[in-house]
């Protein structure tokens, strides 16, 4: 398969890690990812004028799609998207796929402004939204200095019999309000009622990333409060280190059918306290939940499963 990936502002190299034979194109640079590009021997290309149906069969676009909308407009992303539209209007690829990494769980077909895209993959794919039939969940990409796939491929370590009996938490507290899209996320509500139960490191912003992951790895539990969008970075950081994730309930649908144990999911501060009490006092329950979490990680959190998942959809 001759695949061209356009990552408009080089937000996530994970798709290239999953599909190493694809060519990776960037229009603008948001982050310096030179170290990661070198580790994975990725040649970052800027010559998008060479993306055509003579050179490539499939075209993939990574974009926070809502950033072309007036309510969240980003000029570079909008310009990059316009260049992408020009390419697909003048070529006939076997399939054109859009990977939407924006935080919100909207249907991306409502914002793409074209009928030339065959398949959409959504990071935040909701269980309660009726998406267009060509929209699929794909949760293993985001944006930032490192990708979920880097974490999974390089730093995954899920077994540790000597964890400290604590609930680790490190994260930004915020109250996100978007009245236009009716998105409301307030981490303070639950946090203010449970923080006494948590191990909260000081000076976390000055701690090297590997040391931060060590803290998670050495904790029996880690708290994952909902971000503005799901899954968030904390979700992958916790799960990849084998600490039992205590996750705030959300409607995220993963790109696999298994699910984490309900004893580790909570909706309120009181439910969090009740479930933590059970897990602290029942070793068999804790072991059951951690075993299930680690089984999911071993089965699905790898590039082989994800490559097959994507290719099976694209080829169907």
Task: Explain how this protein is built.
- The chain starts with a strand and ends with a helix.
- α4 (148-155) packs parallel to α7 (233-240).
- The chain is globular, with a radius of gyration of 20 Å.
- The model has no long low-confidence stretch (mean pLDDT 96).
- The longest helix is centred in the last third of the chain and has 18 residues, at 283-300.
- 36% of the residues are buried.
- The strands form 3 sheets. It has a 7-stranded parallel β-sheet with strand order 3-2-1-4-5-6-7, with helices on one face. A 4-stranded parallel β-sheet has the order 8-11-12-13, sandwiched between helices. A two-stranded antiparallel sheet has the order 9-10.
- It has 2 domains: 3-144, Rossmann fold (3-Layer(aba) Sandwich); 157-300, Rossmann fold (3-Layer(aba) Sandwich).
- It contains 10 helices and 13 strands.
- With 316 residues, it is α/β, with parallel strands linked by helices.
- It has helices at 14-18, 34-39, 75-89, 148-155, 188-194, 209-217, 233-240, 269-281, 283-300, 303-315; strands spanning 3-7, 23-26, 44-45, 58-63, 95-100, 119-122, 135-137, 164-168, 175-178, 183-186, 219-224, 244-248, 265-266.
């Amino acid at each position: 398969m001759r695949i061209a990936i356009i990552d408009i502002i080089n937000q996530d190299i994970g798709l290239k890690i999953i599909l190493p034979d694809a060519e990776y194109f960037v229009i603008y640079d948001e982050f310096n990812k030179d170290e990661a590009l070198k580790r994975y021997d990725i040649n970052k290309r800027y010559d998008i004028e060479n993306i055509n149906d003579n050179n490539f069969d499939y075209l993939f676009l990574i974009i926070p799609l809502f950033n072309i909308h007036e309510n969240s407009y980003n000029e570079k992303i909008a310009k990059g998207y316009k260049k992408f539209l020009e390419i697909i209007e003048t070529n006939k690829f076997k399939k054109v796929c859009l990977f939407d990494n924006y935080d919100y769980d909207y249907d991306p077909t409502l914002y793409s402004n074209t009928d030339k895209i065959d398949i959409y993959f959504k990071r935040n794919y909701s269980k309660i939204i009726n998406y267009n039939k060509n929209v699929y969940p794909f949760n293993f990409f985001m944006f930032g200095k490192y990708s979920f796939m880097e974490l999974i491929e390089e730093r995954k370590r899920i077994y540790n019999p000597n964890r400290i009996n604590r609930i680790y938490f490190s994260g930004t507290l915020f109250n996100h309000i978007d009245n236009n899209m009716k998105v409301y996320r307030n981490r303070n509500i639950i946090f203010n009622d449970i923080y006494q139960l948590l191990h909260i490191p000081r000076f976390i912003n000055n701690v090297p990333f590997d040391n931060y992951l060590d803290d998670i790895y050495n904790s029996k539990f880690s708290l994952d409060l909902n971000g503005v969008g799901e899954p968030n970075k904390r979700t992958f950081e916790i799960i990849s280190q084998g600490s039992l994730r205590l996750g705030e309930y959300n409607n995220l649908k993963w790109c696999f059918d298994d699910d984490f144990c309900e004893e580790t999911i909570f909706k309120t501060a009181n439910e969090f306290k009740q479930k933590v009490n059970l897990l602290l006092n029942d070793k068999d329950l804790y072991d059951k939940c951690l075993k299930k979490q680690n089984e999911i990680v071993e089965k699905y959190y790898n590039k082989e499963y994800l490559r097959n998942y994507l290719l099976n959809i694209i080829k169907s």
